[in-house]
Design goal:
Distance between the termini: 36 Å
Helix content: 25-40%
Number of helices: 6
Largest sheet: 3 strands, antiparallel
Structural class: alpha+beta
Mean pLDDT: 88
Number of domains: 1
Strand order of the largest sheet: 1-6-5
Order of helices and strands: HEEHEEEEEEHEEHHEH
Length: about 180
């Protein structure tokens, strides 16, 4: 039986997500924005029917980035069902997807972890205030002991600073946790 591992309420309303053609679509087959899966998430996806060949190892040596597939003139996540706009592994989707359009990135000096919103998501233009309102909930989720432990194990979940993001706030507890795990 597959059970959803984490419980984070989606910020963008489902009807809006299902009608959008941005999320889960990528311009490049090797997009650094393709979802990252922790080892546990990868195993759950494989148990759900994904082949191991759908995952490329990331720089941290533990997590994996999903291998995108060609679709029309773009590339899509293999879990994305273009006919319906739904995700075939929604109940077990990775942390990267659960928090989107929130993203976690290092600042330009790679000294702090930041909670940001990816401006590529069209909903951010409509309701940016909603993301500021939801930030406390998302921060509490990301800075819970269990989630910080997963992020520390799969550091590729923390991306490099992007020009397409709006910084919501620093993640000081997560920054401290990652710094401690590096030094230990």
């Amino acid at each position: 039986m597959i059970v959803k591992k984490l419980d984070l309420k989606q910020t963008v309303p489902s009807p809006i997500c299902l009608s959008c053609d941005v999320c889960c679509h990528f311009l490049d087959q090797d997009s650094f924005m393709a979802p990252v899966f922790t080892p546990k998430e990868r195993e759950r996806a494989i148990e759900a029917g994904f082949s191991q060949g759908l995952f490329n190892p990331t720089a941290d040596g533990k997590s994996s980035r999903i291998r995108l597939r060609a679709y029309d003139e773009m590339f899509i996540c293999p879990a994305f069902l273009p006919e319906t706009g739904e995700c075939s592994i929604y109940s077990i989707r990775p942390l990267d997807c659960q928090i989107y359009p929130f993203v976690i990135v290092f600042d330009e000096d790679r000294k702090r972890v930041l909670l940001c919103v990816d401006q590529i998501c069209p909903y951010t233009e409509i309701e940016i205030s909603k993301f500021h309102q939801d930030a406390n909930r998302v921060v509490a989720f990301l800075e819970s002991d269990a989630v910080m432990s997963e992020i520390a194990e799969s550091r590729s979940l923390v991306g490099s600073h992007l020009e397409t993001v709006t910084v919501i706030r620093p993640l000081d507890r997560l920054t401290s946790y990652l710094t401690q795990t590096i030094n230990n």
